[in-house]
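User: For a reading group we're discussing how well predicted structures match intuition. Take Protein SCO1/2. Before you show the prediction, I'll give you the sequence so everyone sees exactly what went in.
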Amino acid sequence: MKRFTFFLFVLLIGCNNTKELPILSYKINDLGERENYTITYKGFENQLGESFSTETIKDKIFIANFFFTKCPSICPPMKAQLAAIADAFKNDSDFVIISHTIDPKHDTSVTLKGYAETTGIKAQKWQFVRSSEENTRLQANQFMTNFKPNEDGTDFYHSSYVALVDKNQMIRGFYNILANEDVARLKRDISNLLS
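Assistant: Thanks. Here is the predicted 3D structure of Protein SCO1/2, as C-alpha cells, for the group to look at:
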C-alpha cells in the first residue's frame, strides 16, 4: 500500500507541473531597473477591413507572429502549424492568433482576407492584421523581433518564432513554430494560461 501511495503522490506531482510562466515583456531603463510593458495596438486593421486595436485583444490570450502572403520560404509551414493550433483551441473563445503582415504595400485587407480563407479558420479565431510599415516595425519591436527585405527583393528576413501573450497583454513565452518540441510546449502553455 505504501508503494501505491508513493506512486500516486509522484503521479499527482508530475501532472501538476504548471510552473508559472515568466513575464518577458520588459525593458531595462537607464537606471538598470526592469520595467514591464504591455502589448498595445493602434492604427491596425484586420482582414475584414475592421479596426484592430488594444481593445480587440482585451481579456484575450493570443499568439502573435510576423509573415507576408507572398512568402516562398518559412511562411507556408508556419501557416500550417498555426492552423493546427487554431483548430486545437477552436472552442476556446478566450484564445486567438494574430498574424502581422510585414508587406503592407502588397498585403491589402482584400489580399489578407483571401489568404485567411485558405486556412479554413474563422476570422474571430485568427486575425490577419496590417498597418503602415513604420507602425509594423514599432509593433515588431514590442514583440522583440524585426524584419528586413532580402537584397533581391523577393523575400524578407523574418523570424519563425511566435510570442504567447496573456490576458494582461504581457509576453509569457517565445516559441519556434517550426520546431515540434516548441509547438508542444506552446500548446501546454496556452492550456495553462487558459486554465
